[in-house]
Structure formats: C-alpha cells, structure tokens
Recover the amino acids of this structure.
C-alpha cells in the first residue's frame, strides 16, 4: 500500500532522517518506535505531505505522493491524527468532526462516516454539541481520532496517540486502534509507548538518530534484547 524509498528529510539545512526505506501492506498495523528526536514524527509528516523530502520517493498504491499537497493526500485515502490532537477548542464536537470530512463530497457519505465514528465513540454522539476544549485528555484524543476517520481513510496515521494519558486511558486508546484496524483500516503508528505498540503491531521499524536500525514482527521485536534494554528497561 505504502512504500518509502530512500527518503531523506531535513529542516533549515539540517538532516533529520536519512535514507529511510520501509513499506506497509494493506490491512497491517505498522509501528515506528524510537526515542525522542529519532525522526518518527518527521517521517509521518512527510508521508502526510506537510513537509517534502530532499531526496527519495513515496508511493501510495504505486502513485508518487512525495510532492503532493496534504489536501490531495487526504483525498487519496491517507489521514493523519497529529501529535497533540490539534483540535479546534472553541468549536463543538460535531463541528470538529465535520471539518475532518471536508474532502468528502457526498452528504450521504458524510452522514455514513459520522454514524460510523459515533458507533466507535458513543460519548461523541452523546456530547456532540459540547465544546471540545471542555473534554478531558482522553476524550479529546478520541475526538482527534474520530476526526481523522471522517474522511474514510484507507491508511490512518497516528502520531503519539497515548501522549499525556494515564495508564487506563492508554489501554483504552490501544484497544480503539485495534478495533479500527479490525474494521479494515491500515494503521501507521508512531509511539514512545513501545510495549503496547509492539503488542498490537503486525510489524515494526526501530528508528535511531534518523535511521532504521531494526525491523521485524511486533512480537519478535518484543523479545529482542536490544529493544528490551533500550526501550523497555528490561
């Protein structure tokens, strides 16, 4: 579904990630794991079109997207839930959700997507008229994910979805990600919460200082001495 081929990206003349190559197959949940500053968010911003690579190519279903604009990438079927949620706090839950559907032209389809996210997140239906900045952190994260689903993506990118949440809410969020994937949405997950990420991932890539240093199935990497020592404190 998605292929990154020798991607290098930087900011203001400084290289952030170098010669990154990986792929995601339809139906998978693939994680990018690594410490702060490893380049995880840079990679997903590049896939989403928010920044463009210095070199290399990105193919989505064999179509080059590395020079495409973000709104065109959304229309092609890729949606990103950004780190920090980035909700419109003064707008209602419903208004935030409708903004996520801006690329959907059919009113019938918008309503269908809305009912689908309400089914996944019942609290959003109950409180759809409430301002989003009155929600708790966990509720705001659910709304951010729901907004990302409103364009009916085939690939959903989640950038640090458990950031700032307590253990119970973290468990809830990962359960939601599993359910989204079970519904047929391919997931690219960026997380510092390594154990939970690998638990639900088909495959994962380990990033270190802008390069991929390991890759494998999620359960395999959980057993890796390097991953256990560097990221799990074992």
């Amino acid at each position: 579904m998605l292929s990154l081929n020798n991607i290098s990206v930087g900011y203001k003349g400084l290289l952030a990630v170098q010669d990154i190559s990986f792929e995601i197959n339809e139906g998978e949940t693939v994680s990018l794991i690594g410490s702060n500053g490893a380049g995880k968010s840079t990679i997903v911003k590049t896939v989403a079109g928010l920044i463009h690579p210095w070199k290399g190519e990105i193919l989505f279903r064999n179509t080059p997207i590395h020079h495409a604009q973000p709104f065109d990438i959304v229309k092609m079927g890729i949606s990103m839930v950004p780190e920090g949620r980035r909700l419109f706090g003064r707008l209602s839950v419903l208004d935030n959700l409708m903004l996520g559907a801006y690329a959907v032209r059919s009113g019938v389809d918008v309503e269908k997507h809305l009912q689908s996210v309400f089914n996944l997140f019942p609290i959003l239906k109950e409180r759809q008229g409430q301002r989003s900045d009155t929600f708790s952190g966990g509720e705001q994260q659910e709304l951010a994910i729901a907004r990302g689903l409103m364009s009916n993506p085939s690939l959903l990118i989640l950038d640090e979805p458990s950031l700032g949440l307590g253990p119970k809410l973290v468990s809830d969020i990962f359960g939601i990600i599993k359910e989204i994937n079970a519904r047929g949405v391919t997931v690219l997950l960026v997380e510092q919460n390594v154990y939970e990420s690998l638990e639900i991932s088909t495959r994962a890539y380990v990033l270190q200082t802008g390069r991929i240093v390991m890759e494998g199935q999620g359960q395999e990497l959980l057993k890796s001495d390097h991953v256990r020592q560097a990221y799990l404190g074992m």
Remarks:
- Residues 167-182 form the longest helix (16 residues).
- The mean pLDDT is 91.
- The radius of gyration is 17 Å.
